[in-house]
Amino acid sequence: MSCKHSKPYVLWLFVCLGLFFSIFLLPPAHALPARVTVQLFTFLPRIDKVVISGRCRLVPPSGNAVFGAASPVVFSQDPKNNSRIILGASSRQSNRQNSRGALCRQAFYLDTDNLPVQIKVLGPDGVSKTARYAGSLKIYATAGGIAIQNRLPIKQYLAAVVGSECPPGFSQSSLKAQAVLATNVLHQALKNSSDGCIPDSTQLQSFGGLDHANSRTIAAVDAVFPRMLCDQSTGQPIEVYYSSTCAGGTSDALKIFGSAHNASPISSKRGGVPCTYCQASPFYKPQIYTIDRYALQGKLGYQPMSIEARDERGRPLKIKIQTAPASVHDIKTISGYAFWLDLGKALGWGKIPGNLYDMRTDNANFIFTSRGCGHGVGFCQWGGEGLALKKGFHYQRMLYYYFPRTKIKD
Ligand SMILES: [Zn+2]
Q: How far does the centroid of ligand 1 lie from the alpha carbon of residue 167, in Å?
C-alpha cells in the first residue's frame, strides 16, 4: 500500500526539483557576459602609432617574438613621460629612432588595473584621436597598421555608450531607456559576432571611452541592467534600432533597411509610430543643402535622377539613378536608405542629417531638404525625451510607445 502511494510523491518531488533548477540555477536563455571586448577607433581607416599615457603593465601572453615577420608592432617605454609608444610598420620607417631597444612582437597585452589611461592614436594624413579607457588592452599588428581591443566590465561599457549616444542634459528616464536599448543592441551584436568582439563606432553604437560615462549614466545602467526589450509572445530579446530625431513619425525596419535585415523576423514585423514629441530637437526643422550637380555626380560615381517611392512617413524607398552618362541601359533603382548612406559618405554625415529627405534640381544644382536626424527606425531619442518632459512618461512607457507588443524583462 505504501508503495502504491509513494509513486505520486516521488513524481511531485522530481517536478519540484525540476522547477527549482530551471528557475533558480539555470541562467536565462539570453544571459549577458560579465565583460565585453570592444575594437577601438574603428572609424579610422588605419592606425599607425599608439601612445598610451598613464599606469599600465605588460601582461602575459605577451606574444612570441616575430623578428622578420611581415608586419609586427614595436613597443617602447618612455619612463620620463610615463608613456608607452607602439608603432606599426608604416610609422616605423619615419620613426627609426623610436624603435631602438624596443620590443618587437605580433601582439602586446596590457592591463590598466581598472585605472583609466589615455590612448592617443595617429592615422594617415596627420589624423589623431584621443580618449580614455580602462581594463585589458590587446594591441596587435594588422596588414599595414595597428589594431586595439579593450576588454572591460559590461556595465562600464553600457554607461559609456549611454553617455556617447544621448545628448547631455537628457532626463534620467531617457538615459534608462537608452541603457535598455544599448543592452539589446549589445546582445544582438554578440549573437552575430564570430569572435565576440564588437566595434566602437555608430556602425553598431557609439562607445567613446570612459569620459562619456558620468554619475547619471552609471546610475541609469545600475537601475535597469540587465533588462532588455523582449517580444511579448516569445519572450526573446528583439532587434532594436534607434536614431536621434524622427521629425513626425518612425518607419518600418523592413521597408527602410530591406530584406538584408529580414534575418530577424521579430523586428521586421514592427511598423513605425507617429511622433511629434521630438520638436525640441535642433534637427526637427528642415535643413537645406545645395551642391553643384557635377560635383555631386563626381563624388557619388553616379547621377541621381528622382525619388520613385516613399513610405507613409515620407521617407524615400526607391531612387532612380543613372550609372553612366547618356545610356538608358544604365538606369537602375537603389533604396532610399542606401542613397542616403551614399550621400553621407560622399558629403559628410551632417549635410543631409535625416533619412526623411526631398531632392530637386535646378539647372546647376541639386537641392536637398532633410528633416530629422538619423534613419528614423525604432526609438526616437528626442521623442522619448519629449514624452518624459511633456507627459511624464517613465522609461518603460517610453519604450513601449516606440516598440509596441514588447515587454521589458531581466
Ligand atoms: Zn520623433
A: 15
* List of residues 6+ apart from 246 with CB closer than 8 A: 272, 275, 278, 313, 356, 372, 374, 376, 380, 383
The pLDDT mean for the chain works out to 86
Please give the Cα distance from 228 to 236 (Å, whole number). 9
d(CA 383, ligand 1 centre) in Å: 4
The CA 217 to ligand 1 mean position distance, Å, reads 22
d(CA 382, CA 388): 10
Rg (CA), the chain: 26
Per-residue pLDDT tens digits for 236-283: 999 999 999 999 999 999 899 986 554 444 444 567 999 999 999 999
Burial class (CB in 10 A: 0-12, 13-18, 19+), 83: middle
Residue 116 has pLDDT above 60, yes or no: yes
Whole-structure pTM value: 0.85
Q: To the nearest 10°, the Cα dihedral for 263, 266, 271, 272?
A: -90
